[in-house]
Amino acid sequence: MAGGSGRRRALVAAGAAAVGAGLALVGAVLLRAYVLRAPAVPRLWARRGATAAFGAGERLELKEALRGAIKIPTVSISPEDLNTTAMAEFGNYIRKVFPAVFSSEFIQHETVGEYSHLFTVQGSNPQMMPYMLLAHMDVVPAPPEGWEFPPFSAAEHEGFIYGRGTLDNKNSAIGILQALEFLLRRNYRPQRSFYIGIGHDEEVFGRKGAMEMAALLEARGVKLCFLLDEGSAILDGIVTGVKKPVAVIAITEKGSITLNFTVEKEPGHSSFPPKETSIGILAAAMTRLEQNPLRNLFGHGPELMTMEHLASEFTFPLNLIMSNLWLFSPIVSRVLTWKPSTNALIRTTTAVTMFNAGVKLNVIPSSAKATVNFRIHSAEKATEVLETVRNIIADDRVKIDVVEAFDPLPTSPWDDQSFGVHIFQRTILDTFPDVDSVVPGTCIGNTDSRHFTNVTKAIYRFNPLLLSSDDLPRIHGFNERISVEAYEKQVEFLFQLIQNCDTEELPEPHTSSHEL
């Protein structure tokens, strides 16, 4: 009896301990979700509205300026294959459309690498550290098949302008110059100097455009307080569980490595084929790559900061989960693999982009070639990816050559001392009244900004546009378009950003507003 009683007491004690541990766990989860918050950038200014008032004539002008630029087919196919005639035409076009920019006494314009444009806007206070706004004029090819309107027609339909470059990235190139043109007409001169760079070969590595502009600035001893380029946007309905639009500013971008795979075998007649052909061997190797994705690295890059900063914006029960990634990280990392757009945030991705083989229907080809592009997660290096790929292929008959490789970009500052972050936050909240959250993120593509790491450590990638899930496949895809209203907002953002950058010292946090 005594032994049985002791065992019962032990079970009761164990049960009580388990209940206590469970309650403590629940308490910790609720505490982190509703009391404790991830470190955020404090709001330094009270929110304002209606920051820029463009008249009807100006709104028509900015729309037509963009449409005219879209009609110029500044296509880049490869570093050696650019539509240079169109790029020269673009240079003449901006001179005509933005006369105040090109005639201002305190703005210097230079042509770099034959077709890119570098503007130096000299501020009235040389003691203030300059910044840079970056964009590009070149676009990817756009065959007309599959488009509702010809890709270089700039057709206007139901409030949208259709055309290649409306989202990537003539909207930024023209928008920056348009904002500056409007400011100059209002007799504005900035206190803080800044640079505007418009590249002509961003889609094909930016070697003669952005790279030469960056080298020029470095040779002149220029140091920037920040650089703003394309790369992310205001996401509306894209983040599952978040109802309001979210401004995501990319603080890094993924690296890239492109590999060529080649298999060579003796050619022959299709009537007596070998057991394995060059095509079969290479196809099997590509299948192994696709079926063996590189490791999930959720929690090792800025994607963790994104989730933590957004945690309170998620609806129940996602707010509990995202506030407690110390507990739920394995579940979240698995869920993120389900969609290509979120899977790209948490690992190095594999994309077989080209496959070439065969010369005739009855000839066994002597060779087969494939090209694969890997976008490298910020926690990995190009050399690590190459080694992993070799291990996955595990076939000496497949020759692997590196076409181009570069590592992920360093992570830019995101804290209460980051001047650019505060200015972006202020301008976003004033320009976009439906946005409450400004969070750091990762750019899964590559931009010209990667060439400027020697002139600033504060590189940010953000296109001030409201994008829905319907917009994402249009970038580099069919029926790329921008709403007239969205473009007006983009110009308004840039118009206000330039003025906000005249801030010399950051104020104390605004006590009546929450942190973001």
Summarize the structure in words.
It is a single chain. With 516 residues, this protein is of the alpha/beta class. The protein has 14 helices and 21 strands. The strands form 6 sheets. It has a 6-stranded mixed β-sheet. A hairpin with a 2-residue loop joins strand 1 (76-78) and strand 2. Helix 2 packs antiparallel against helix 5 (170-185) and helix 5 (170-185) crosses helix 14 (484-500). The radius of gyration is 27 Å and the shape is globular.
Q: Could you give a short account of the major beta sheet?
A: 6 strands, mixed
Give the N-terminus to C-terminus distance in angstroms.
62 Å
Strand content is 15-25%
Helix fraction? 25-40%
Strands of the largest sheet, in order across it? 3-4-8-5-9-19
The shape is globular
Q: Would you identify the regions where 5 or more consecutive residues have pLDDT less than 50?
A: 511-516
Mean pLDDT: 91
Radius of gyration: 27 Å
Kindly state the number of beta strands. Answer: 21
Number of helices: 14
Q: Could you say which structural class the secondary elements and strand pairing correspond to? A: alpha/beta
Provide a compact summary of the structure.
By secondary structure, this protein is of the alpha/beta class. The protein is built from 14 helices and 21 strands. The strands form 6 sheets. Strands 3-4-8-5-9-19 form a 6-stranded mixed β-sheet. A 4-stranded mixed β-sheet has the order 18-11-10-20. The chain has a 4-stranded antiparallel β-sheet with strand order 14-16-12-17, with helices on one face.
